[in-house]
Amino acid sequence: MEIFDPKSIEMNKRGQKTEKQVKEIKEAVQPGLWLYVGLGILVFGGCFSSMMGAMGGGGAMSVFGWIIAAVGFFAAVRGFSSWNVRRKLLADKIQTAEGTVSMTFDAETTEGLALAPQGMAGMKALLPPGDYRFFFLKTRNYLLGAEPLSSEEELRNGLNEALANAIGYDRSQLDEFRRQAQEGKLKMLEGTPKLDMRQSSVTVYEQGEQHEAAVFNYSCALGGVKFDISAEAHFAVFSGIPYRIYYREGGNSLVAIEVA
Asked: Which of 38, 41, 129, 172 sits at 20 to 30 Å (Cα–Cα) from 106?
């Protein structure tokens, strides 16, 4: 599959991070904003306290000065902590372990260690379900990359199984969908879908109170036809991989998606 980069895999095997992986680490952990904001607030707080002291201010002004100092200290500590994490990630030696990516795109070693893409716990692995040799860093169990141990056919079957679970059909039905497409009972599109995710807000009423909640809407488009899909199906559609989409004409009712 084209989603795997042989050069990156060979470098990780030799214990080396690629330029792309180093860039991803730096983008994933950015301490600069917190440090600059924290130090700026501390400087402002110090100037404010000195000015109030010179003017003989006290009471509420003194409390306000302490609040500013506390906020600045928190931001500075947060920035230093992020800087330390990034330093560790860049210095960490690459670890290897065999494991699997589940049908829900969770990466886990055979010893039960959950690995985190970009060091973010709970983030899904952009890898087809199957068996892998993982390359990771101890800090945050940061998943760098993976070498597939499953065959390409097994990885295709894993993706098709994940799509079937997400959309709501059995993978064994794909033969029937193909037959119906040949007979003209279903429409079929083949190619690389374009994915889209949009955020909107809805008004929610809970216990008599009203508030806004974020809603994420996922879709994929192919051949000028757009389909609404679930978040689970969105994770199973990888960029750069061709798919077949089966649907019913009239409302563009999605029936199934499989790897082409």
From this structure: 172
